[in-house]
Design brief:
- The protein has helices spanning 13-22, 39-48, 67-75, 97-103, 122-129, 195-200, 254-258, 298-320; strands spanning 3-8, 29-34, 51-54, 83-87, 91-92, 111-120, 135-136, 140-141, 152-154, 167-169, 174-178, 208-220, 292-293, 296-297.
- The longest helix has 23 residues, at 298-320.
- By secondary structure, it is of the alpha/beta class.
- Helices cover 24% and strands 20% of the residues.
- 26% of the residues are buried.
Length: 321
């Protein structure tokens, strides 16, 4: 099975740093589409060895963020004989994804999808990584304590379908199909919504199949409402910002305040009377070997130990005589 992935990732480097690393080895080729200004995603693609496509087609014709136009740019780099998994850049896949799909002997005329669990906040993602994950003992697929994401099922059709039963449609966070089964992704959109449902409608219900052996992990920022990023990134950073350094007290230099030192360790490579921004490079290491222990000079301690040793030696020689 030739499995190739395609994702759109614009201003999502904080998520992609996590998912891109976690998904290493899943695909034979992973196509990542970003805009011309996003240098962070570009750097991550270089680090991970992914195929990068840079384009500003997202914003053509006055669109806020036409995700699906970007998908069609990426499709130009997907092989005609490959299975393509459209996946969101905040989704973590199971390491055995390709093995599972290969063993299922999939039908090239079908559209496939699977469920996801929602992992909200970097602290929960860290806890998940340090745990067992969604697969336990190689035979039990669990939610790993995370809430299960919703499925989209149209019992009475979509708007304008007059109550027609449409049933389950795989959402755009994970849609798998063979490249030969379609020409283009629908892109009549101003944002990142709706067109994944139009794409799913290219297959009737009997040709849409759910894969229960797989489960994605969806990374989310705290307090991110549904659809908050459909028209460009607006959610909070996934990785918390580092706390600001403490304020420098009056009369102290930046370096003196940042690096506390004892009197024997102070090195004046910043003049106290002058600003230290940017600081000059020190001509020698900032820290000397520690020379005091609780206020007692190291040399005095060593001298005392030597003196005690000499006295003990002299006394032992005296008693032998």
């Amino acid at each position: 099975m030739k499995l190739q992935g395609l994702t759109v990732c614009v201003n999502y480097a904080d998520f992609f740093e996590q998912t891109g690393r976690a998904n290493l080895g899943v695909f034979d080729k992973f196509v990542v589409v970003t805009d011309l200004a996003d240098t962070e995603v570009s750097a991550l693609c270089e680090e991970f060895g992914y195929f990068l496509v840079k384009t500003d087609v997202f914003y053509e014709n006055g669109a806020s963020f036409n995700k699906y136009a970007g998908i069609n740019e990426g499709l130009k780099h997907i092989d005609d004989d490959a299975w393509v998994l459209f996946v969101d850049s905040d989704i973590v896949l199971q390491p055995d994804t390709k093995r599972v799909l290969t063993e299922l002997n999939l039908d090239e005329s079908f559209l496939y999808g699977f469920d996801r669990v929602n992992c909200v906040g970097f602290e929960n993602w860290t806890k998940y990584k340090n745990g067992r994950g969604v697969l336990e003992h190689n035979w039990m697929l669990t939610s790993a304590g995370l809430p299960l994401g919703a499925r989209l099922v149209h019992y009475y059709g979509h708007e304008g379908e007059n109550g027609k039963f449409e049933g389950w449609r795989p959402l755009g966070f994970a849609q798998l199909c063979h490249r030969s089964a379609f020409k283009l992704y629908p892109q009549e959109s101003n944002g990142a919504d709706h067109c994944d449902l139009l794409f799913a409608r290219l297959w009737d219900r009997k040709h849409r199949a759910h894969i229960p052996e797989l489960l994605g992990v969806h990374l989310e920022s705290h307090q991110a409402d549904n659809g908050v990023n459909w028209y460009g990134r607006k959610s909070d950073p996934f990785i918390p910002a580092r706390p600001a350094p403490p304020a420098v007290p009056p009369g102290r230099t930046i370096r003196e305040w940042e690096v506390p030192r004892t009197a024997s360790q102070v090195i004046n490579y910043c003049d106290k009377e002058k600003d230290c921004d940017p600081p000059r490079r020190p001509e020698r290491p900032i820290f000397d070997a520690p020379r005091d222990f609780g206020g007692i000079d190291r040399d005095k301690i060593i001298g005392f130990i030597l003196l005690v040793g000499i006295v003990i030696y002299i006394i032992s020689r005296f008693f032998r005589c």
